């Protein structure tokens, strides 16, 4: 194993969809409703002969906690356990307050952050990635988890961090 990678982001941005794409199986449950309990959060993946463990932190949930406490715990786990963090946002909704909250938590680490702007299902949506520069966590990368676009770019960034 070359490293550990954690996926973080607010509910419903497509973390589990991207997780399943990367590990090549449908282990994490993709939910149309945010906040529904997921099953698998750990997977193993390989890219260009480099093996790594992947954690879908969205599947780690606390009972009776508000959004900020829950996401704070997920980000803390990501920062502690991972060599690289994939921060997933949605190009459909644009930058939200919750994205900004997560970005501020992530700015406390010097671990590699890969900013995946998901739901960029076709080229006409590409310009909507640029507003995510304002999160201050690096260059946004266009991804479509459901169409399998941009996943290779994310994987390249991941293995460069090991
Ligand atoms: P999570 O809560 O961040 O784990 O998000 P999920 O992976 O469960 O996905 C939430 C919703 O977004 C589901 O309805 C997915 O089908 C949808 N979704 C995920 N990726 C994409 C994408 O690339 N494009 C579009 N249009 N929808 C997506
Ligand atoms: Mg999920």
Topology:
Elements: E1 3-8, H1 15-23, E2 42-47, E3 50-56, H2 67-81, E4 84-90, H3 97-106, E5 112-118, E6 140-142, H4 151-160
Parallel strand pairs: 1-3, 1-4, 4-5, 5-6
Antiparallel strand pairs: 2-3
Helix pairs in contact: 2-3
Bound molecules: guanosine-5'-diphosphate and magnesium ion.
The site of magnesium ion (MG) has 6 residues, from α1.
Organism: Amedibacillus dolichus
Binding site for GTP 1: 9-16, 56-60, 118-121
Protein name: GTPase Der
Number of domains in the coordinates?
A: 1
Return the average pLDDT rounded to an integer: 91
**Shape-level CATH architecture:** 3-Layer(aba) Sandwich
Write down the CATH class. Answer: Alpha Beta
Distance between the termini: 10 Å
Total helical elements: 4
Order of SSEs: EHEEHEHEEH
Any idea of the CATH topology? Answer: Rossmann fold
Description:
The chain is globular and about 35 Å long. The mean pLDDT is 91. By secondary structure, the chain is of the alpha/beta class. The chain has a six-stranded mixed β-sheet with strand order 2-3-1-4-5-6, sandwiched between helices. It has four helices and six strands; from the N terminus they run βαββαβαββα. It starts with a strand and ends with a helix. Helix 2 runs parallel beside helix 3. The chain has one domain: Rossmann fold, CATH 3.40.50.300. Residues 9, 11-17, 30-32, 34, 58, 118-119, 121, 144-147 line the site of guanosine-5'-diphosphate. The site of magnesium ion (MG) has 6 residues, from helix 1. It comes from Amedibacillus dolichus. GTP 1 binds at residues 9-16, 56-60, 118-121. Residues 3-162 form the EngA-type G domain. This is GTPase Der. Belongs to the TRAFAC class TrmE-Era-EngA-EngB-Septin-like GTPase superfamily. EngA (Der) GTPase family.
